[in-house]
Fold this protein.
Amino acid sequence: MVRRLVIGAAGQLGIELVLQMQAEFGPNSVDISDIRVPDNEAVLRSKFLHLDATDEGALSRILEEGKYDEVYHLAAMLSATGEKKPLAAWDLNMQSLLNILEAAKEGWINRVFWPSSIAVFGPGTPKNKVPQSALLDPTTVYGISKQAGEFWCRYYHEKYGVDVRSVRYPGLIGHRSLPGGGTTDYAVEIYHYAAKDEAYTCFLRADQVLPMMFMDDAVRGTLELMNAPKEKITIRTSYNLGAMSFSPTEIGESIRQHKPQFELNYAPDQRQTIAESWPCSIDDSSAQIDWGWKPQIMLDDMSEIMMKAMAKENETLKS
Ligand code: AKB
């Protein structure tokens, strides 16, 4: 059995990835770690290990004991929170990655997954269909840490043969977990408000188009990348990964197909400046060619799934 460790398992992606691993391979196939206990009962069917991933000693002890084949290192401070605490973001995002890469170099792990982000792009990058090899031009500390991280990953692969794999996620939208501290978080929050028949005030401009992805696609893509034969992986910085692009106005219209009275207002804040620096859409042909990436869920299908899931959750809370 492949032994997996998910670091940052209490986060938005961590929870969803662990749930899928449990469903596919069983709860014992994955151990979970974070600095906080995940507030999701199902996730806790897997063994929980308290870990601050910047603590090299603590990480070594966990890896030595667990004898993991794969580590999914998801712990990070995202774009909006990172701008409030730049040095803490740099410290967490970089030190934890370097600790994992060192452990892999020493042979404690066979394969590493580490997420990058569209935050590596910036004003000098094309806005539409950003090519894989586009200029990286990050304007946030989070983006700078992802850019540096990508090159560290490639360095450890080329110098030491570390099998580290990565994708540049767009904004991720799912109903089983909440995001925290990102610029794309509005696209999850909006469904929660709509489902409760509450008006939502968006912190981005009405016409701000960003690349987004439904969580199930993101989780499937991540596992597909990790299962791909080594020789198929030609990019060791990070793969562009696309699915759909929409603005707050467009997601609002999609939600109104289920909630015609839904009220959407706008009060752009400092996150608008971050969003403006990011591209609108992504060219992910390298991921398609190398390991068969194909998104399945687009905006209206996603809205249907999200609204149904939220309605069910609200029913359960009432009963
Ligand atoms: C954020 O908004 O910071 C993240 C991301 C795009 O990486 N969701």
The chain has two domains: 4-170+215-227, 172-212+243-318. The mean pLDDT is 97. The longest strand covers residues 30-34.
